[in-house]
Write a structure and sequence with these properties.
By secondary structure, the protein is mostly helical. The chain contains 13 helices and no strands. Helix 3 crosses helix 12 (257-267) and helix 5 packs parallel to helix 11 (242-248).
């Protein structure tokens, strides 16, 4: 076939490929629209209407009143504060411990494969299962933690670990970090393995100590991995639910935004205010996600 005739047929072929691509993407588009977009639209519609349908009346448009109501609620404000405490403590522990674990596992040593397998195990467990396991540890009557501390004479009587607010938040955060740390460590381990050994050899020749290599070689080149790890850790800790619910239920001293939204929506059957609080959480998550995307772009630029 002459080249001119072949080129003349290209636009039609491209249009055919475009149509074929659209047809193949249509099922996924419909599924996304039905499972994500439509519930979001209906949820937002619920959040800006009154909950009068619960008492047999026609819902009316109230605008941002539901959002103002949940943000003025002291219980919701406490839940927001608790959530930020979870995020701050969890991300700090995950970054520090994740880098430490990754640096330890970077070198090849006997039993490294077994250590990696054990490292992944907490991440593979569902968070509900992790919560049940740790509830056995913190149980005030026959928990493993009380038993160990009593035997070591650290405490004189069993302690209710999840009764006080700050301590309970710290302990629940530890349980959350225990499940997320393997993922964060693998992110850092992948970043460390991408750093050429020649850089460490050159810095050693220049007289850099191990700490100097870590500060001037490892950390700067690990910035993209740190940005990714902070993004993942923050988004997972903002949406913390299972660990709190299994360990301490809906207790006020450890209630997060998601627990509060669940309590308002399904316990109090107030779908309007519960949906409004859920959208507040979605907005906070979007802000953090956007900020981390910008940081990641700068880190990889």
């Amino acid at each position: 076939m002459p080249r001119s005739r072949l080129l003349a047929r290209l636009p039609g072929a491209r249009r055919g490929d475009t149509v074929l691509g659209l047809l193949m993407a249509a099922p996924a588009t419909v599924a996304i629209g039905g499972l994500i977009v439509y519930p979001l639209v209906k949820g937002f519609e619920t959040s800006v209407h009154s909950g009068a349908a619960l008492v047999g009346q026609e819902p009316r448009y109230v605008g941002a009143d539901n959002y103002r109501a949940v943000l003025d609620d002291p219980t919701s404000r406490d839940a927001i504060r608790h959530t930020f405490e979870y995020v701050l403590l969890a991300v700090t522990l995950e970054i520090v411990l994740g880098i430490a674990v990754a640096v330890t596992l970077r070198r090849i040593f006997r039993g490294r494969g077994a250590v990696l397998a054990m490292l992944v195990l907490p991440w593979a467990l569902p968070s509900v299962v992790s919560g049940v396991l740790w509830r056995r540890v913190f149980d005030p009557d026959n928990g493993l933690l009380n038993a160990a501390l009593l035997k070591l004479h650290v405490i004189s009587e069993p302690h209710v670990w999840l009764a006080s607010g700050r301590l309970a938040i710290a302990l629940i955060t530890v349980v959350h970090v225990w499940g997320v740390l393997p993922l964060i460590s693998l992110i850092f381990l992948a970043g460390l393995q991408s750093i050429p050994d020649e850089l460490y050899d050159a810095s050693a020749v220049d007289g850099a100590s191990a700490f100097g290599q870590f500060r001037h070689v490892t950390l700067p080149l690990l910035r993209p991995s740190i940005a990714v790890a902070m993004t993942v850790g923050t988004l997972l800790s903002i949406s913390i639910f299972d660990e709190i619910f299994v360990l301490n239920g809906t207790a006020l001293n450890t209630r997060s935004i998601l627990i509060q939204a669940y309590n308002i929506t399904f316990v109090n059957a107030d779908f309007a205010h519960g949906t409004a609080l859920a959208f507040v959480l979605a907005g906070v998550t979007a802000v953090f996600g956007s900020a981390y995307v910008l940081v990641l772009r700068r880190a990889t630029a």
